[in-house]
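User: I want to check something. If I give you two sequences, will you return the structure for each one separately, not as a complex?

Assistant: Yes, each is folded on its own. Here is the first sequence with its structure:
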Amino acid sequence: MVPDAYLTGLLEAWCRGYPHVVLEVDSLEAMRLLRNDSTMDERCSIMWYLLDLQRRNWVVRLNHIPLNLYKLADSLAKLPTSDSLDLIVFDTPLISVRHLLDTEVVS
């Protein structure tokens, strides 16, 4: 299934007015669902919200990132602040993960 984090992230990006967004997804099943709305039914309300967000006047690109290769997300998830269920937005990269961001941008 599709995590709520995708919806939360896209809503935050929309509210901040970002015209181009890359949604990095580590689940092939989630990618399939997000790219093919013909399989939707009324029970997938989070999917309807995600599809609505994707159809708005902006560019949302979906990228599949295999979980074992996405070290940046893994590092952020392990930060001491990860115990909180609140959304944490970093306007600038943290020093502790900057080298991972630089590595992933290059590759």
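And separately, the second sequence with its own structure:
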Amino acid sequence: MTQFAEDRLYMALNGFTQAIGPDDAPTRLRHEALIAAEFDRCHPGDSFEDLKRRARFSKEDQGLLWDWMARAARIEASARDRKPDEPVALAA
């Protein structure tokens, strides 16, 4: 099994299994880099890496990871859509 397949996380929603985060590994890693430090600041005593580890078996943590990956996608989309001299807003 490849490293990509082992790192991929999935969650079951209403009987359908869906991947958490983007499909391609470079984009997923970029999204994780965008939110890891912010997650660590918002959850003292916890880490983004621990969340990813727990998400393998916890539905609650899968949902939390899903939300954070969606946040990363919004941050990246807003950075892509902004003007070059405009600051990136991290608030949702």
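Because they were folded independently, the notes below concern the second chain alone. The CA atoms of residues 33 and 72 lie 9 Å apart. DSSP finds four helices and two strands in the chain.
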